[in-house]
Design goal:
The chain contains no helices and 23 strands. The chain is mainly β. It is globular, with a radius of gyration of 23 Å. A hairpin with a 3-residue loop joins strand 8 and strand 9. It has a 20-stranded antiparallel β-barrel. It has strands at about 25-40, 40-45, 50-55, 60, 65-70, 75-80, 85-95, 100-105, 110-115, 125-130, 135-145, 150-155, 160-170, 175-180, 185-195, 200-210, 215-230, 230-245, 255-270, 275-285, 300-305, 310-320, 325-330. Among the domains are: about 110-160; about 170-295.
Length: about 325
């Protein structure tokens, strides 16, 4: 799948009400199970915990209780042990601006993240603070003075920079560029994006280089089309990758480039914009395919049951040989 670099700002509280406690508007209790056949019906069987949040389908099937405010921002997350139903961790969220979805703090119990903004509401830094109240990690954001666009993100671990991402826009070619440099591992990722007139990303190229040698290890293109809102329903991929192996006896590293099998990802959605089908079809099989063999010709289908508020309360996920049922108990508050 496309490895988009994303930064999710999920929670908040209006500037004038930062210290005011926000009441819950909705609580969702999610439980996921394997299935068994009961005469002509498929019914829940043993609890399943490995599914969690599915990045492919963008469906959350984690065993958890989630508490939301009226803007749809999560306020509290309770992770559940499936075998006994007990809570094993709780995460609390506080907000800078709930309406715009800007987070102020995430408290994990043993550590927390603090989000700091300037007077215009631009995110300046994220700090990770341990139980001894010491800063262990930090992300710093830099914007240009002309139009306020994000141009740099720097990642620090105990005052040592580990990674930085540079953002730019080529006016001539209309290409958005992201250069992600991993200073620890001698690799960098360069991502080029093109957008259509509606702002949808319709082309993406992801290339991986070695920093010192500037040797290109991977180059994969993604062509996106058939948008539902901003979600592409068709993605065509092709390119090449490098398989790196290290001899355990000599420590010698070898690199073998191979052509990535060209494939097409297609998605279908229902009238509520919930995904109902995902397929990954090979269109040009290669004899030297390595990683792509694991995902060739996948097909998933999802069937939903909704309540009278148009929230799904049960889904059946069919991944071919296996089927899973995810159930959600939803409570609403005024």
């Amino acid at each position: 799948m496309i490895n988009f670099i994303t930064f999710i700002l999920m929670f908040c509280s209006c500037n004038t009400n930062i210290n005011k406690e926000i009441e819950f508007s909705k609580i969702i209790k999610t439980r996921t199970f394997g299935t068994k056949q009961n005469f002509e019906k498929i019914v829940p069987d043993k609890p399943e915990t490995f599914l969690g949040y599915d990045q492919t389908l963008k469906i959350d099937m984690e065993w958890a209780n989630k508490y939301y405010d009226k803007y749809g921002n999560i306020l509290k997350l309770e992770r559940i042990i499936a075998r006994n139903g007990e809570i094993f961790s709780t995460i609390i969220y506080k907000y800078y601006d709930a309406v715009k979805g800007k987070i102020k703090e995430i408290n994990y119990g043993s550590s927390k993240e603090e989000y700091n903004y300037n007077s215009n509401g631009k995110l300046l830094e994220i700090q990770t603070i341990d139980k001894n109240n010491e800063i262990t990690d930090k992300i710093i954001f830099t914007y240009d003075n002309e139009n306020g666009n994000l141009i740099k993100k720097k990642y620090y671990e105990i005052d040592k920079i580990k990674r930085q991402i540079l953002f730019s826009f080529d006016e001539n070619s209309k290409i958005y560029l992201e250069k992600d440099i991993n200073l620890d591992r001698n690799y960098r990722t360069e991502k080029s994006l093109k957008k259509d007139n509606l702002g949808n990303t319709n082309y993406e190229k992801v290339e991986i280089f070695e920093n010192r040698e500037n040797n290109k290890l991977s180059s994969i293109e993604y062509h996106l089309s058939n948008f539902l809102d901003s979600i592409p329903q068709k993605i065509r991929c092709k390119g090449f990758d490098t398989r790196i192996t290290i001899d355990t006896n000599t420590g010698v590293e070898t690199k073998e480039k191979y052509e990535v099998e060209e494939f097409v990802i297609e998605k279908k959605f229902n009238s509520r914009n919930d995904i109902i089908e995902y397929s990954n079809k090979s269109v040009s099989p290669k004899n030297n395919v390595w990683f792509d063999l694991a995902r060739r010709n996948e097909k998933y289908t999802v069937n939903y049951t909704y309540n009278d508020k148009n929230d799904w309360i049960e889904l059946l996920l069919d991944v071919g040989s296996d089927k899973y049922i995810c159930q959600r108990e939803i409570k609403y508050f005024k």
